[in-house]
Specification:
The complex is a heterodimer of chains A (about 150) and B (about 425). Chain A is an all-alpha fold and about 150 residues long. Helix content of chain A is about 65%, strand content about 0%. Chain A is flat. In chain B, a hairpin with a 6-residue loop joins β2 and β3. Classes of the chains: A mainly alpha (about 150), B mainly alpha (about 425). At the A-B interface, α1, α3, α4, α5 and α7 of A face α1, α2, α6, α7 and α11 of B.
Chain lengths: ~150, ~425
């Protein structure tokens, strides 16, 4: 068939490197190692500073994506048409996201007071109520409670 | 017309690829924009959420290892479709078909694991639902009201059969057999209604001992910090996962203190009620005696005096009864609180929802935004996987030889793209 002749990503390579299977297996192993690596980063001291951890994980993900795009999707062996189709799409996608930052990303900066009262709120250590502040009998209370708790369970 | 020379008309494609591949790459370039938009929106929402509110994976029952397994499964499927393509190119259709089958198996496994994950979220009440999900952004009066409404709804549900008739433990279980005219007890129905009644009792205890108590507590104090602490205590009892450790300690301390106070109050009220009841008995005996006196006395003047005394004693007894009733109600309320605290100890094994398999409203700050983005991202990805599987199924009846290798390549390109999307989703959803 006529079309099939054009299909081959690059006939030269297809002929010279007849069997790329071992190579693809190597790429697969690399991908697995990288996945393990990002799993390790997530549970490592790197996450003590989340920004470092996130950056590392995104870098690993990008490396994995590049491996898949370049070798599994054969873009490594393709002619320069690959840039025409992928680069503009990526740029437009990124611009779309960047446009969201002022409106959505910084939405809490412009909240009204009313809106703020129902916005998500984390638990944090606010000052204790007056009635509970400076309580020195906390330990005493605990010792009072523990035995009676048991007696209630019975 | 001259036919002397034959101009050699050769087809010169603009791009050195087949039309099918070009079309697929054009489609993929739109997909790049689609998923960049989706993932980017997720990132903007996630990092734009108020500081410290975005739920961590364990707060919303996201298991890292499940995500890791799914990543592995999808990577495997990527390499198998590559193998299918390579074998098809080398004109080995049988081997190619085997690799295609393996790809389909991995794809199905991925979807299966995804379905299991979704089910586990649903079972914990984590899903986007309009107009009200079970997730609240903060422990405030809206949340308290939500718990109240949901509890009474659940009680109503637990006490009614699917047809909407009230369940009575004994009556409904006993059904009269029309043939024999004898009543029969269906054990299954009994067990069902029994567990339903237990659930209803449990919910009623929550309603009085936790919800109503918190409402009363909030209503009886002017200190806004104290009100906040009371509602946060309720949130902690229902779903403690979202509480940072230092804050959980504070809530536990608050509960310990409150429980001691409640016990003291219960003691006080019990004594008071006992005292009033003795007084009441005494005054009733006195009333009886006065009644007899009225009947026995013959002297009109004396009778009137006794009557006046009786009226006085009667009004005293009435007041006493009222007071005793009030104190008894209060005592029972306090006792209900103690019972509820014993039945649902704060911080116990994942809280009321986890430990008792209930679905009461939970406080998960930014939880709704999380659920919306999670289900949208994984859902769209899942749909892509499903479509890929359908296309693979269409390839199955074909002979995957060198002539068809272009087709396998195109489907593979799509499948790899779906894999790339997951490569980014995995750390973003499971590890961040």
């Amino acid at each position: 068939m006529h079309q099939r002749d054009d299909t081959s990503d690059s006939p030269a390579i297809a002929h010279t490197a007849k069997d790329r299977k071992p190579f693809f297996t190597g790429v697969f192993v690399m991908l697995l190692l990288l996945t393990g690596m990002s799993f390790w980063v997530a549970n490592s001291p790197l996450m003590d500073n989340p920004v470092t951890g996130w950056t590392a994980m995104m870098a690993i993900s990008t490396a994995k994506a590049m491996l898949v795009i370049l070798f599994f999707m054969h873009l490594w062996w393709e002619k320069s048409w690959k840039y025409v189709l992928t680069v503009p799409a990526t740029i437009i996608g990124l611009v779309l996201v960047l446009l969201l930052i002022p409106d959505v990303g910084n939405r809490f900066a412009t909240y009204s007071k009313t809106r703020r009262t129902s916005a998500p709120e984390p638990y944090h250590a606010a000052p204790l109520p007056n009635s509970l502040a400076g309580q020195s009998r906390a330990g005493q209370v605990a010792s009072e409670v523990t035995p009676s708790k048991e007696s209630q369970a019975e | 017309m001259t036919t002397s020379s034959h101009p050699e008309l050769t087809y010169q494609p603009a791009l050195p690829i087949s039309n099918g591949k070009l079309a697929l790459w054009l489609f993929l370039s739109t997909e790049i924009m689609f998923f960049t938009g989706l993932i980017g929106t997720y990132l903007v929402l996630r990092f734009g959420a108020p500081e410290g509110t975005w739920p961590s994976p364990q707060e919303v029952h996201v298991a890292e290892w499940i995500g890791a397994i799914n990543t592995f499964v999808l990577l495997c499927s990527s390499v198998t479709i590559v193998m299918a393509f390579e074998n098809a190119k080398q004109n080995l259709p049988a081997v190619a078909k085997k690799w295609l089958w393996a790809t389909i198996a991995f794809g199905c496994l991925f979807l299966g694991i995804k379905a299991y994950e979704y089910a586990s979220k649903y079972s914990h009440g984590i899903y986007p639902r309009y107009p009200r999900s079970l997730m609240y952004d903060r422990a405030d009066l809206t949340f308290l009201n939500g718990v109240k409404l949901e509890t009474s709804k659940l009680i109503k549900e637990a006490l009614s059969t699917p047809e909407g008739t009230e369940v009575a433990i004994a009556e409904d279980v006993e059904a009269v057999d029309p043939a024999s005219g004898l009543s029969q007890i269906t054990p299954v129905a009994f067990e069902e209604s029994h567990s339903k009644v237990t659930e209803a009792e449990q919910l009623q205890l929550i309603q009085s001992g936790l919800v109503k108590w918190t409402e009363t507590k909030v209503g009886r104090t002017d200190d806004p910090l104290m009100q906040k602490l009371a509602i946060e205590g309720l949130a902690y009892q229902i779903y403690p996962r979202t509480f940072p450790e230092h804050y959980a300690d504070r809530i536990e301390k608050y509960f310990a203190d409150e429980n001691a106070e409640t016990k003291r109050r219960f003691q006080e009220l019990s004594e008071e009620v006992d005292g009033r009841q003795q007084q009441l008995q005494a005054s009733q005996q006195e009333l009886k005696k006065l009644e007899q006196d009225i009947e026995t006395s013959t002297d009109g003047e004396k009778k009137n005096a006794v009557r006046a005394k009786f009226a006085e004693a009667k009004s005293f007894a009435d007041d006493l009864t009222l007071e005793t009733t009030r104190l008894t109600v209060e005592r029972d309320f306090v006792a209900g609180r103690l019972e509820a605290m014993a039945a649902f100890p704060p911080g116990d094994d994942g809280g009321v929802n986890e430990h008792h398999h209930l679905k009461l409203p939970m406080v998960i700050p930014s939880g709704n935004t999380w659920a919306n983005t999670y289900f949208l991202l994984t859902g769209f990805h899942g749909i892509h996987v499903l479509i890929g599987l359908i296309i693979f199924a269409c390839l199955l009846p074909m002979r995957l030889d060198a002539a068809r290798s272009g087709l396998v390549e195109n489907v593979g390109l799509y499948w790899h793209f779906v894999d790339i999307v997951w490569i980014f989703l995995f750390p973003l959803i499971y590890l961040f």
